[in-house]
Amino acid sequence: MYSAFGKFFPFAIGKEPGFTKFRVLPNQSQKTRKYVYQDVTTIPFVYFLHDILKLQKIDFAWIDIEGGEFEFLEKIHNDVQFCQFNIEVHSRFAPAGAQVFHDFIFRVLEEQKYVFLQSMHTGGGVHRMFFLNVQDKECLAKYFNNY
To answer: Are residues 103 and 67 in the same domain?
Structure first.
């Protein structure tokens, strides 16, 4: 199924290697949408990106970690170069993450590395946001002619 889009990796990205409880949709049914918490094998994102994929930069990333995104946000500032990323923030699954997300947004504004394009509330404590890297010249050339 995934081969039409790329390679499927049977693990999750986590802060540390090991096992983490994630909200998953085990039967992939879009009709029932019944998520459950399961222990999932995790590897660190930077290790996956640099050592397995051999990438230093990501053109586009869709980040939807079903509540696990709060521990991932720091990677966006420090360890990974994104040209564009879209992220879903699931505040209802991690109410304590509100401060983490607040700090992330204010750091984005202070660093002026990303332009925050849009925020969409999709209901049930889920927000979708779209960010574009405006500091990296390679990234800018992908989006703007004659840059």
So the answer is: yes
Q: Which two tokens stand for residue 124?
A: 């049930």
Q: Dig out the tokens for 12 from the structure.
A: 């999750």
What whole-number distance in Å separates Cα of residue 112 and Cα of residue 63?
20
Average pLDDT estimate for 110-133: 81
Find the domain containing 10 and state its range.
1-55
State the residue for tokens 């290697």. Answer: 17
Instruction: Confirm whether pTM is higher than 0.85.
Output: no
Please name the residue ranges forming H helices in 29-143. 45-47, 73-78, 97-111, 137-143
Distances (CA, A) of 63 to 16, 31, 52: 17, 22, 19
Rounded to whole angstroms, how far apart are CA atoms 111 and 133?
11
What is the number of structural domains in the chain? 2
